[in-house]
Amino acid sequence: MAKSPEEEHPVKAFGWAARDHSGHLSPFNFSRRETGEEDVRFKVLYCGICHSDLHSIKNEWGNAAYPMVPGHEIVGVVTEVGSKVEKFKVGDKVGVGCLVGACHSCESCSDDLENYCSKLILTYNMPYHDGTRTYGGYSDTMVAPERYVVRIPDNMPLAAGAPLLCAGITVYSPLKYFGFTQPGMHIGIVGLGGLGHVAVKFAKAFGVKVTLISTSLSKKKEAIEHLGADSFVVSHDPEQMQAAMGTMDGILDTVSATHPLLPLLGLLKNNGKLILLGVPEKPLELPAFSLIMGRKTVAGSGIGGMKETQEMLDFAAKHNVTADIEVVPMDYVNTAMERLAKADVRYRFVIDIGNSLSATKP
Ligand code: NAP
Ligand code: ZN
Ligand code: ZN
């Protein structure tokens, strides 16, 4: 008979888990493996709440296995390293994002694109090499192979840096890959949430013109004055959308819910590219004419490889890019999820695991 989550490994662990598709999270005792030769073990201090955590705990993508400990924007301090670990030592500030494993022999893996390996292992809700399930960062400790651990730059605050581990790399990678960093470019960002707000910051750090396309007029002032967006378009205002038609070289679409693509494709110049980053529950409609007229492209992009994730963190540290966060205690997590579902967060919740998790132990 399979062992219980508490008994399958030698090291005790404690976190919060969802037990079913209600997504309600509650305290959960489980276990983690011993520190292997190539592993880095760390005490989790902060973990961001990504909208993917919300999709996952509610089984909106149809692949949930419970109990599920979510969390893939994990930062903390190293407590133990395996004998073959070269890059990290006890006391270092580190992070783990969405990945903890891949095959390391396919073309994607040799190109430093573990994120596109067909055998990738996500940080939670996946079977690991040893057959046990992966558990994420809403927990006290984390252990991962050195390859999947990144260094948090010295000058980067840990809590505000945590969301870069998923939101940051998810927007940085397509900005670079699709050439949206070239001087003079005009880039649209759709959705001002966790991904969207760091997308504005990275795009501005690259020096391009940025327009925010949002359903929330209430976010306009802050988007321009604080985040540095050059302009703001309310997506359900036909006049504003009309005025922006045909002006953008590229668009990053971070919307988490089903929405029409036709108006967004209209914002692109000829040869413009719409990059889908959000993962709505249901498929999106793609009208062929809107692509044919103007030779436009629709593409997708998923997080980033480990080498690029480190590069992104170093770039962020150099350009003072961090997330705007609301730090919340562990027992606020269910309320945070309700607010996230309503796009009511500026702009990322980060759980203060280090100071608030242990108090929730039954
Ligand atoms: P988030 O913080 O909830 O932000 C999503 C934003 O989308 C909201 O703030 C809102 O912005 C807008 N929005 C929400 N519902 C909408 C609707 N019905 N119509 C139009 N706009 C709507 O979520 P997030 O953490 O940034 O994640 C966004 C999406 O990316 C999720 O689906 C997540 O799973 C996915 N994701 C993908 C990857 C990847 O590798 N591709 C990585 C991480 C996350 P406004 O108020 O400005 O309209
Ligand atoms: Zn995420
Ligand atoms: Zn591979």
TrEMBL record:
Pfam families noted in UniProt: ADH_N (PF08240), ADH_zinc_N (PF00107)
Database matches in SMART domains: PKS_ER (SM00829)
Keyword Zinc: yes
PROSITE patterns hit by this protein: ADH_ZINC
Keywords: Metal-binding, Oxidoreductase, Zinc
Biological process (GO), any one: lignin biosynthetic process
Cofactor dependency: Zn(2+)
Positions of the Enoyl reductase (ER) domain: 23-351
Domain of life: Eukaryota
InterPro entries: ADH-like_C, ADH-like_N, ADH_Zn_CS, CAD-like, ER, GroES-like_sf, NAD(P)-bd_dom_sf
Signal peptide: none
Gene Ontology molecular function, alphabetical: cinnamyl-alcohol dehydrogenase activity; zinc ion binding
Entry similarity comment: Belongs to the zinc-containing alcohol dehydrogenase family.
Protein name: Enoyl reductase (ER) domain-containing protein
Lineage: Eukaryota, Viridiplantae, Streptophyta, Embryophyta, Tracheophyta
